[in-house]
Every structure is written in C-alpha cells, then in structure tokens.
Design goal:
single chain, 155 residues, mainly beta, five-stranded mixed beta sheet, three-stranded antiparallel beta sheet, 0% helix, rod-shaped
Length: 155
Amino acid sequence: SGVYIATLDYELNEGDTTVTITATDEAGNVSTPLEQIVTVDTIAGTISIDVPLEGDDLVNGAEATDVIVSGTTTGIEAGQIVTVVLSDGAATPNTVTLEATVQADGTWALSGDQVANIATWENGNISVTANVNDVANNVAEQATHTLVLDTIAGA
C-alpha cells in the first residue's frame, strides 16, 4: 500500500485511453494489473450568439424588458452553463449577467427569469458576450455581439 506517482514520457492522444498499472516488489513479485480508463480532453469547444438579436439587432421600448439571447455550441456537453453579459455604454455602465444551459443539441437560450431587462439603460450600443467551458474546464473563445437600444419614440 502507499501512494505512487508516475510521470509519463509521452503525450496521450485526445479521447479515452486505457492505463494499465502493475507494481513489482523487491522480491520480483508482480501485482495483479489495475486498469483505468482516462479521458484526455484539451480541446476547447466553441460558442456563438444567434444574430440578429430581437430580429433586427434593434431593441425598441416594447422589447427592452425581455431581451432574449440565444446561440449554439460545438464540443460543449449538455448541461454546461453559458454566462451571458449585457452592458451599455453609460459613463457608469449598466451590466447584467445571466445564465443559460446548453441543451443536448448544443443550443442555449436565456429564458424565464434569465431574460435581460434593459428598459432603463442608456440608449445606444449594448455589448453582449457569451462564455462557456466544457466539462474538462476548457474555455471556449468568447462570443461577442452588439445590438442597439432605442427606446425613444420616433427617433
């Protein structure tokens, strides 16, 4: 019994690999092999935001209380959490952080209490970012998009 550490002198390929471990004592007795499947995952998935948002990338007064952001992922497992951040260009920026769950088909969408209410924000450009990690904690490159908030009638 005890703790043993082994350093591999070669790289494992992506995916599942079976590792077989044996121990040999001072008398030359070899233990029963122990097999363990390990998964190597060093490749980050991708995330994108569906565009245009709100049909035209313009959020009017009627749409400003429930802005829905959605998108797709590849290489990201179902159940992973997408973090969506919306921010305006005010001197002291308004920001909201919301979450969506990646579905089995790779899609995700803000819904329920996780839709953005930006009705009181400064009119103008609204930046939207989406971030996600896979289960191995590989970070997908951030998705970004800009939409315009215009709640002034006749503007």
